[in-house]
Structures are given as structure tokens and as C-alpha cells.
Amino acid sequence: MNYFFSFLVLAEIFSIVAFSTNLLMGVVGIFSVAQAAIMGIGAYTSGILVMMGVPFPLAVLAAIAVCAGVNLISSLPSLRLAGDYFIITSFGTQLVATAVFINWSSLTGGASGLSGIPVATMFGYSFVTASQFAVLSTLALCLVALSFWLILRSPYGMMLNAIRLDEIAVVASGRKVLQTKIGVSAVSGAYAGIGGALYAAYISFIDPVSFDIHVSVLVVTMVVVGGARTLAGSIIGPFLLLAIPQALTLIDIPSTLVGPIRQLIYGLLLIAFMLWRPQGIAGKSL
Amino acid sequence: MLYVQLIADGVVTGCAIGLVAVSFAYFYATTGIFHVAHAGIYTLCGYIAWYLTGLGIPFILALIASILCGALVGMFVQVTLYQTLENKGASPLVKLIASIGVLTTLQNIVAIFFTPNIVQFDLPWRLNSLTIGGVWFSVPQILILLSSVGLFAAVVLFSKYSKLGKRIRAVASNPGLAEITHLNPQRVFVYVIAISSGLVAVPGVLVGVDQALQPYTSLIILLTAVIAMIAGGIGSLGGAFVMSIVLAVIQSLSVAFVSGRWSIAVVFAIFVLFILIRPEGLVRRKFSRAI
Amino acid sequence: MTYLNVSNVNKSFGGIRALTDCSFSIRPMETTCVVGPNGAGKTSIFNVITGFIPADTGRIEFKGRDITAESRHDRVEAGIARTFQNLRLFETMTLLDNVIVCLGDNGANDPLSAVFRPFHTQAVLRRKREAAMMLLEQVGLAHKAGDQAANISYGQKKLLCIARVLATGAELLLLDEPTSGLAAAALDNMVELIHALKNQQKTLLIVEHNTKIVKRIADEVLFFHRGTLLAKGKPDEIIANEDLGKIYFGSGA
């Protein structure tokens, strides 16, 4: 049972990060392969603050603010210019963030990471076991999903869709495209920050490998497999893809090959879905 | 003297990155596809040569075989993936994600079928070196220098003077028009990816000989190369090559001031500076693709 | 004070001159047609006026205000909006949503109000729906409001472009070939709509190829050739001018 709840918590945390990617990539069409890095920044921010004695809710708020800011700043140079610059900024943000996690060891514990992050405590309750934490992560996922849904059905959400379809036409109608993109970057960063803060509190150990480029590619795969622009897509993807490593444990393969085989599956899934089902399982076409 | 050595090392690294940049830019400027999987072909070719030399095959034959393999894999990706996506009217985002899928697939095929560990070539001569004017070069470094400059010149000459090179440039500057004049762009793209994938095999193998092979590090090299391409002005092969060397020299010199582990941050900082100050790159070109 | 004043505008792309020393002005509440052979610089002048390409030199004034260096967004806010030759509709969105996105109403247009003031946001959306519906009615597309833009006829798409440009609230509308490719009935419909817009105090600058249409809608005609303004006058004078006719139809060239 505990095994089920720990899977549930992890899948819900990644669903939150998938919402972050879906908002940028699925809705506005801004490529992002740095959402794991942003999630990591949230995890380190909240983890370090909680270890310093800051109450968990405040640490989560700080993580949200920092991630919204970082996502915004990292995308700012590219927001001014359309197109492929964003790809490089995105890869660059991811690689630089990993370098920071590894090399700023006085703060992040370097490659060996931070361990012993205290359990999440809110309003007198401690979320220690997986089943207790599942309450917290379910609540967070519901809030994120609700906000995603509200944004999509607002006039602002219509404009996000319109920017993906034809940015020039949106500009020509006198809308503030830059301001819109800045807003969406901040919201996307905030989602990833929530995901990161929950991850740090639940696992109680974070290291650079937990938030490297492979994790970002995994998050992209989740959105691609689940499907763009729908609530169901952002939730189905993480649950399915996190089940793959579980399924692999049933097959007898050498431990050194587990990681590569898992990633090979992600890579093949990306290609297959782009070729034959760009709308994913339950979404709309990218 | 330390600085001279650092500069020399930077130039060598820059030449290798320059070939990656030139080969990437050649495909990118022609097709507009952000071919991230290029980094996967780079990795794959290095491991193929490593595997073949391990079987006792002479190095030069292993190098040629890996160039051919690179070209074939590239053509396969173009024909089965990019062309299919193009025919389906897929967006650039879809092509990019598919390309990331190919990169991930190639990297992990290498890790599964060869080894996920760091490996070195078992070639005694790779440790030989010579000193020119007080500057130390390893034999692989010399090979990198000579082959990069030679191949770069060959690509430029090919693009300018050969019949196929001219056709490629025609397609790059105006795919629609080229189609009307019976230059099938998709056919031309297959040639282009074969050339650029074959080219990228050379630094893929030689850098591996000089240093070591790792399945997952090529993305950083590609990112540096792409930044050099942008800084040099897209569509300008010379700009991409020269800026690769400049970037690598700065990166190499920066080691004297900040830890080498921050070098990716240094490169990225240069990129941010560039897009803030001069987004069109150093060399402005008439036929540059709008990025 | 002139209404829109373009003076000495030059623009070249990598050695190719798109506009050479262009100067003209248009009067408010009139319909001005831009005519000329292909490559005459008609769309370039639209791009320069709306800020989609910066002029190399020259000056553009709108209602006495220098807008040469202003952003595209500010120009729409000042009252200049355009359509595109290739339409640029949001194909997978409904007609109603196509118009809503272009409405100049900035209410609840940020993520925070979408999330934290959902009821207010929905009220704003209802208001926008009503406004957009009125515009669709005006162009005769109200019955298609819920359809996807991709699924309507070409003529209807052109009408949707007009509804979108009206949604910006601009008073000077630049229409890039609003009648091209239309069948007779749709064409008459569009001409009627253009007349109706003029009666609503809109100023129109229209790229138009068909001289018959020009006669029906234009108060003033600007004849462009090779990036310069060659002639300006009443439609009858310009169309009757044989020299211009030769350039336009390429007969004597």
C-alpha cells in the first residue's frame, strides 16, 4: 500500500511539473527543456530554507517566487525575439542550472546533494508517510490543475492559444504579446517551483542528477505522451511514464543498463508520438 | 607561457567545435530544422570508431567507417523522420521534439550496445606529442587542427563551386522557388544531412581519441557550436567556424580565472550578451534564415 | 493638420529597394486605394505604416503625432490596424474567439485575475463575447460564430479578417487585398461592407487590384510603381491615364 502511495505522490509531483511544461509548450508553443532545472531550483530553495528553520509553507512560497522569477529571467532575452533562440536559452538554462547545483557546493552540497531535509509540516500536521504526503500532493495538484483550467478558459488563455497559432496576427491586433509571454513564463515557473518544493520535502534528499537534462526530457516526454493543452494529458503522461521504470524492475536486466534502457524508451516514445500521434493520448496536437 | 598554451588548447578545441558548428549550420540554414540529434550522431560515430579500433582495425579505416555510418544514420533520420514530418505539415516544435527523441535514442543505443562508461581509445600514438615554438600539442590535437581546417575549406569550396553545392544554396535561399525549378528540396536535404553527418563524425572521433568518449556529453558541445553559429551569423559558415574558435579560446582562458566546471556558464553568458547586443550575429548575411 | 502623412520613406532589403522616397498623405473618412503592378511596394508601405518593418529613413505622422519609431502595439492603440494578404486567421479557433482575441478591451487580461478572480474574468469574457458577436453580425457572420475558422469559405474568411480588424477599435484600417479571390456575390458583399465602414467614419487604405472595384470604392487612388508613388488622384483620372495603364498591364513595356 505504501508502495502505491509513494508512486502516487511522485506521479502527482511530476504532473505539476508537466502542467508547467504544458503551459509553455502545449499552450503558447514556447519550447522548454529546462523545466526540471526550474523544478530543481524550487527544490533547493525550499529545501535549504526549511533546513534553516523556515516554516514549510513560507519555503514553498519562496520557491514559487524564485522559480517564477528565474523562469522569467531565463526566457527574457528570447521573449524579445521569436523562434529558435528559445531553444538555446532553454538548453542553456538547463545545463547552467545543473552546473550551479554541482559547483555551488557551499549552498547545494555539490554532487552529493542535500540530505536530511525535514518533513513537511503545515498548520500543526506533519506529512511523514507516503499516504500522509499524498493528501498534500493531491491538494497541490488539484490547485494547479484548477488554475490551469481557469487560465485556459479566460480571455488571457485565448490569447495564449492565439499566440501559438499566429503570433504576428496577435501583434497586428495590438495585443501586448511580450507582456503575455512574461506572465505565462512566471506562471509556468511557479508551477515547477511547487513541484520542486514538494519533491524536496517528500524525498528529503535532493542532488543535481534529480534535476538534470534527462529529467527535463522525461517531462517533455510526459507532456508529449499525455497530450498538450488538456488536464487529462498532463496527468496521464506522468502516471504512465513513471510506471515504466516500475515495469522494468520486473524484467531481469543488469543494473547498469536500467537507466539507458529507460531513456531509450523515452526517446523512442518521443519519435513515435511525433510521427503518429502528435496530440498524445488525451490532448490536442502540438 | 601558460596563456599561450591555453590559447593553443582553445584553438584546437575551437576547431573541433567549429566542424560541429559548420556541419550543424549547413543543415540548419538549408532546412530550418533545429537538428539536436546532430549531437547524437557525433557521439555514435566516436563509439563506432572506438569499437572498430578495439577489434584491431587500423584507425584510419575505423575513422572512414564511422564517417560513412554517420552519413547513413543522418540520411536515415532525414528520410524516415524529418521528411515524413514535413509531409504531414508538422510544426517546427514537433520536428524539434522528434529530434530530441532521436538524440536520446542514439545516446542510449551507444550506452546499451557499447558501454555507458567513459572509455578511451586503445591507441599508443594518442599519447605522443610534439612541441612547436614552446607550445605543446598532442598528436590527436594536431590531427584535429589539420582535419578541421582542411574539411572546413573543403565545405566552403564545395558550397561555392560544385554543382551540388550551388543547388543546395539555391534551395536554402528559397525552397519554394527551388521546387518550381525542379530542384526537389527533400532530395537535396538528404545530401545535406549526409554531408553534415559525415563531417561531424570527424570531431566526434578525434576529440574522443584526444580525450575520452562519454555517451551523454555531446549536447554541451553542440550547444557551444550552435551559440558560435548564432554569434557568427546564421548562414555564414566562416562566421560559425571563426566564432567557434573565439568561443573556445575564451572558454579555455577563462579556466585561468574561474574553475573549468563553470565553462558552460561562460559560454552561455557570451550567448546572452550576444542576443542582447547583436542578435543578428557578427556577420550579417543576405540569405540568413530568420531565427 | 493632415490625417496620415508619410514623408520621404525609404526601405531596402539587402540592396533591393522596396520603397524609394515615398511621400503621400490621406484624408480622414475617405477610402484611399493603393494600386500598382506586382512588386510596386504596396504591401511594403503597409508594413512601414503599421511598424512591421522599420523604414530606413523618412517619417510617418498620424493625426499630427510622429509614430515613425513607435511599436506595433502603440500604433494600433493610436488607431491604425491592418489585415494581411494571407489572412493569418487563428484557424483552429472559433470565429467568435478569433474576434475576441483581437478586441481592444484589456479587462482581466492576465493570469492572476484568471486564477484569483474567476467570476470577474468570466463576466469580462461575457462582455467580450457580446462585443465580438456584434462585430460578427456587422460583417454577416453571426450565424457561423461557433464554427472553426478553418471550416468556413474563403469569402467568409475575408469577412472575418474585417471583423478582427474592427475589433481593435482602430479608426484607420489598412486592408491588404480584401477582395482578391472572391466570387461575384462575395465581392459585392465586400464592397457593400467597405461602404458601410466608410459610413461609420472609418478611414480606409486598401490595396486593390481590380480597377472596377477601385472605381466603386475609392475616393482617392495612389498609384505605386517600383517602390515610388507615381501618381495620385481621383479614381477616374488614374484609371483613364494611358501611361499608367501601360505600366499596370505591362502592355507597352
TrEMBL record, chain A:
Membrane-traversing stretches: 7-34, 54-73, 85-104, 124-152, 182-205, 217-244, 256-276
Main location, first listed in the record: membrane
Intracellular or extracellular location(s): Cell membrane
InterPro entries found in the cross-reference section: ABC_transp_permease, LivM-like
Keywords: Cell membrane, Membrane, Transmembrane, Transmembrane helix
A GO MF label: branched-chain amino acid transmembrane transporter activity
Protein topology in the membrane: Multi-pass membrane protein
Signal peptide bounds: none
Pfam family name, one: BPD_transp_2
Domain of life: Bacteria
Protein name listed in UniProt: Amino acid/amide ABC transporter membrane protein 2 (HAAT family)
UniProtKB/TrEMBL annotation, chain B:
UniProt key word Glycoprotein: no
GO biological process per UniProt: amino acid transport
Transmembrane portions of the chain: 6-29, 36-53, 59-81, 93-115, 135-159, 188-207, 219-250, 262-279
One Pfam family it belongs to: BPD_transp_2
Protein's name in the database: Branched-chain amino acid transport system permease protein
Protein's cellular compartments: Cell membrane
Gene Ontology cellular-component annotations: plasma membrane
CDD domains hit by this protein: TM_PBP1_LivH_like (cd06582)
Segment forming the signal sequence: none
Keywords, in A-Z order: Amino-acid transport, Cell membrane, Membrane, Transmembrane, Transmembrane helix, Transport
Species of origin: Hoeflea marina
TrEMBL record, chain C:
Every ABC transporter domain range: 4-251
Gene3D superfamilies: P-loop containing nucleotide triphosphate hydrolases
Superkingdom in the source lineage: Bacteria
Cellular-component GO terms for this entry: plasma membrane
Keyword annotations from UniProtKB, A to Z: ATP-binding, Nucleotide-binding, Transport
Keyword Cell cycle in annotation: no
A GO MF term: ATP binding
Keyword Protein biosynthesis found: no
Family stated for the protein in its record: Belongs to the ABC transporter superfamily.
Entry protein name: Branched-chain amino acid transport system ATP-binding protein
Organism of origin: Hoeflea marina
